[in-house]
Design brief:
Elements: H1 2-15, H2 25-58, H3 61-79, H4 85-106, H5 110-127, H6 130-153, H7 166-257, H8 264-292, E1 299-303, H9 304-314, H10 316-321, E2 325-328, E3 333-337, H11 338-354, E4 363-370, E5 374-380, H12 412-422, E6 427-432, E7 436-444, H13 447-450
Parallel strand pairs: 2-4
Antiparallel strand pairs: 1-3, 4-5, 5-7, 6-7
Helix pairs in contact: 2-3, 3-4, 4-5, 5-6, 5-7, 6-7, 7-8, 11-12
Length: 454
């Protein structure tokens, strides 16, 4: 196999030269010619060398010379360079053409000789073009026609035409020529169709490549904009916290020192300032947390079951106050970002407990299933549920459905969406009002291909 590979590479460099792109049908014609020479030369000793010996022993000197010339020409076509592939094809076709006529004249094998002429025409059409094949058909037609007339008129004494019937000769010749024309015409139609498909495929590939380049550029710009947005959110959240602290401090100081001098309405206003500033501080902290998600994340293998056990301890007070039950079993070990994944589960479990129905024991179920390329998890509850018109909006930042009834910043589910996305997955919800909600999310098994580094 080693020598065959070296032989194949050597011939490819000689015959095909540099690797050419697939532009049109000529690429495939050249490839076909290359393989013809490759296999013909490799297996020619099995036919040519015994033929040379047999020709010598039987006295067919012309055939012996022809076999030797054929072998030498194949070596020339395979290894001699520089020589254009079109010239190599012409030499190869001419060699086949000569062999066919030698078979006719010197061996008196009319049937094999005529079939060989027919085969040469087909090979020419395959490796060159229909134009050259038609030229060969024309030359063959003229020569065979002259031989047929010689049978009738006896211009020359030829061993090939002795004792031949003019009717039989022209019957065979006309049928073979007709068959050659039909085959070449059909091949040409097929080749034109193939060439059209190749050109369309190339154009389509160019369009796809351009779209891919545009997509890569867009992704690069999007990544840069996300970086800018995260930096902006970090700066805003950090810089606003200082004046906010001052506002809270001065509001507190004013109430404590001048309480008696401030009217009741003024005290109420100051209370609103304190409450609003506290909420503003909470929003800024949440915004900063959202901007920092995925920064410096570290991938590891961890047990989801153990994470849920830890969350039961962390949320024990909330669980106890709401008489909640968390059911889970068969949770797997996965590869991901443990801190972010724990935050994802914490948000979903806390929401399941928070948005409960009055006088209803909270039941939270956590399950998972494995597919070929990802893990799919679900967190189900028996809470107040979510109307279908809001089920896509709830994952957007600062979107809150129950502003007056339940406290919050509107960033919890937005955080969940971002965490799932850095794990190469998707998140969605299936819910019926007053029946409960089931949050589904997927985690890719191959984070290197589905996520990018921050």
């Amino acid at each position: 196999m080693k020598y065959w590979g070296e032989y194949k590479i050597r011939l490819a460099k000689t015959i095909l030269g540099q690797n050419e792109a697939i532009q049109n049908l000529s690429y495939y014609r050249n490839q076909l010619f290359f393989y013809l020479i490759l296999y013909t030369l490799a297996f020619s000793p099995l036919a040519i060398l015994p033929g040379i010996i047999a020709s010598y022993l039987t006295g067919f000197i012309y055939l012996l010379i022809l076999n030797i010339i054929t072998f030498l020409v194949l070596i020339f076509l395979a290894f001699i360079k520089p020589l254009q592939i079109a010239i190599r094809k012409m030499i190869f076709v001419s060699l086949l053409f000569i062999i066919a006529w030698v078979l006719l004249f010197n061996l008196k094998l009319e049937g094999p000789g005529l079939m060989y002429l027919f085969s040469v025409t087909i090979v020419t059409c395959l490796i060159h073009s229909a134009k050259f094949a038609y030229v060969l058909i024309f030359i063959n037609s003229v020569l065979l026609g002259l031989l047929g007339l010689n049978i009738e008129l006896q211009w020359f004494t030829l061993s090939l035409t002795e004792n031949q019937s003019t009717t039989t000769w022209f019957g065979i010749v006309v049928n073979l020529i007709f068959l050659s024309i039909i085959i070449v015409a059909c091949f040409e139609i097929i080749f034109k169709k193939l060439e059209k498909i190749i050109i369309q495929q190339r154009q389509l590939n160019e369009i796809v490549n351009q779209d891919n380049l545009k997509m890569l550029d867009t992704q690069k710009v999007l990544k840069e904009k996300n970086e800018e947005l995260n930096q902006f959110a970090h700066t805003i959240a950090h810089d606003l916290k200082e004046p906010l602290r001052s506002m809270q401090a001065f509001a507190s100081l004013t109430v404590s020192k001048y309480k008696e001098a401030i009217p009741e309405k003024g005290q109420e206003f100051l209370g609103h300032i304190q409450t609003s500033s506290e909420r503003m501080a909470l929003l800024l902290d949440s915004l900063l947390e959202y901007a920092q998600l995925g920064k410096g994340k570290e991938k590891s293998v961890f047990s989801v079951k153990e994470l849920v056990k830890e969350l039961e301890k962390d949320l024990s007070q909330l669980i106890k106050e709401n008489d909640a039950r968390i059911h889970y079993n068969g949770l797997p070990q996965i590869t991901g970002y443990e801190i972010e994944f724990k935050q994802l589960l914490q948000n979903l479990i806390a929401n399941a407990i928070k948005f409960k129905r009055d006088e209803e024991k909270v039941e939270v179920k956590i399950k998972s299933k494995e597919t070929d390329d990802h893990w799919e998890f679900l967190v189900a509850d028996n809470g107040i549920g979510i109307d279908s018109k809001h089920q896509k909006k709830i994952f957007t930042i600062f979107h809150r459905l129950h502003k007056n009834k339940f406290p919050g910043t509107g960033l919890g589910l937005a955080n969940c969406k971002k965490i799932v996305e850095i794990h190469g997955g998707n998140i969605w919800v299936d819910s019926i009002p007053e029946k409960g909600s089931t949050f589904y999310f997927t985690i890719s098994k191959n984070l290197e291909k589905t996520t990018t580094s921050e």
